[in-house]
Amino acid sequence: MRTAIIFESYHHHNTEKIVKAIAAAFPVTLINIREQTDYNVKDFDCIGYASGIAYNKYYEGVVKAAEKTMEEGKKVFFIHTCGKNDRDFAAKLKDLAQQRGCPVLGTFGCNAWDSYGPFKLIGGINKTHPDEKDIQGSLDFYRKLNL
Ligand SMILES: Cc1cc2nc3c(=O)[nH]c(=O)nc-3n(C[C@H](O)[C@H](O)[C@H](O)COP(=O)(O)O)c2cc1C
Question: What is the DSSP string of 113-140?
Fold first, then answer.
């Protein structure tokens, strides 16, 4: 299975830490859409979409990338970091995957450093995250995908 992870991560590079740890442990190609705009995923059988969360959604760039790259038969999975991991932030992308005929393999999410809005006044919440345990959780998640 040839796998790519398309990601966007700018607030504290929390999501980037997670996907880089995965790419260091498994054969996966990372596509940072803030740096690479001319990417092509036709050679990949499986695509992960990874993002921070803004206003309860995956970043707009990642949503657009999903709209562009989800093609029938490609397997997909989702990874996010957020201030409060209390809901299924990937729900809309899962719906899109279903409409496009893309099997959804799973979702990983964890709390991470968030200093947006009022949290800035206190230096942010979850300041030490993602930590080693979060990274380990993401590696366990990825391993279980059996790619
Ligand atoms: C503009 C903005 C809006 C955010 N909105 C939410 C939100 O609705 N829910 C949440 O749990 N976290 C929210 N966060 C926190 C980020 O999702 C969190 O810090 C994430 O780990 C950032 O990922 P990144 O460092 O990879 O960009 C927001 C952060 C920013 C900058």
Answer: -B--GGGGGGT-BSTT-S-HHHHHHHHH
CATH of 3-144, one of 3.40.50.360, 3.40.50.300, 3.10.20.90, 3.40.50.1460: 3.40.50.360
pTM beyond 0.70, yes or no:
yes
Ligand 1 centroid to Cα of residue 83, in Å, is 6
Per-residue pLDDT tens for 55-114? 999 999 999 999 999 999 999 999 999 999 999 999 999 999 999 999 999 999 999 999
* C-beta of 2 in contact with ligand 1 (< 6 A): no
The closest of 65, 2, 67, 9 to 37, measured between CA atoms, is 65
